[in-house]
């Protein structure tokens, strides 16, 4: 689909309060209006950046007001447009400290080769550590290190408000087990301990209380289905405090099932 990115276009929409969806089906991007500039969560593919920019404008914002881009991890589908955005907007690019060499291209682990694409590297402006709090305007985003999918994967937690109600939003940094397969780890000579880190990350995330579950791919949290419910008048379509913990638990089960298949 990324070879024809327009087929992954999703009409942008307000999720709740000052939180918006501006991404595509292959790669989610979320926008926070902090009242003192914009925070973009994941820049997505460079090839679909024009769709993200169009979505931001369609919602009435100026992309040049993007101050911070917080990346969940160093794969091309989540940070591929980072360099282009920085050159366009002058924004600061954030990345988990253990994914620095993914982002700057020192390690060829952006997942571009697997997708038959070319990754354009960048040097992160800010390297995030576990527990860091990134504040802009009325929004403070807490970063939680959730290694596994990549060593520097970061999950983000922050409050969103419509002026009357406030909810806690959570974005997981990397739920995929594709990079934990025996084939992938052996190909790049990566440690099998990444699997243990993934399990520990998911167990840790099950202790978080989240009202609005954000996925960094649309299928993680049924972005498309919930957007349809919003259009049909369900203003609280994304508010569900029961979603987050079961999904984090399922991620562990998903990995365990893959490990069983590898033994067959």
In short:
Helix 7 (193-205) runs antiparallel to helix 9. Helix content is 30%, strand content 21%.
Commentary on this structure:
The chain contains 9 helices and 12 strands. The protein is α/β, with parallel strands linked by helices and 264 residues long. The protein has one domain: Metallo-beta-lactamase, Chain A. The two termini are 32 Å apart. The model has no long low-confidence stretch (mean pLDDT 97).
Give a topology summary:
Layout: E1 13-16, E2 19-21, E3 30-33, E4 38-41, H1 49-58, E5 66-70, H2 76-79, H3 82-89, E6 92-96, H4 100-103, H5 112-115, E7 126-128, E8 133-136, E9 139-145, E10 154-161, E11 166-171, H6 182-187, H7 193-205, E12 212-214, H8 223-231, H9 244-263
Helix pairs in contact: 7-9
Keywords:
single chain; 264 residues; alpha/beta; Metallo-beta-lactamase, Chain A; 5-stranded mixed sheet; 9 helices
Number of helices: 9
Unreliable residue stretches: none
CATH superfamily: Ribonuclease Z/Hydroxyacylglutathione hydrolase-like
The biggest sheet, with number of strands, parallel, antiparallel or mixed sense and barrel status, is: 7 strands, mixed
Q: What's the pLDDT, averaged over the residues?
A: 97
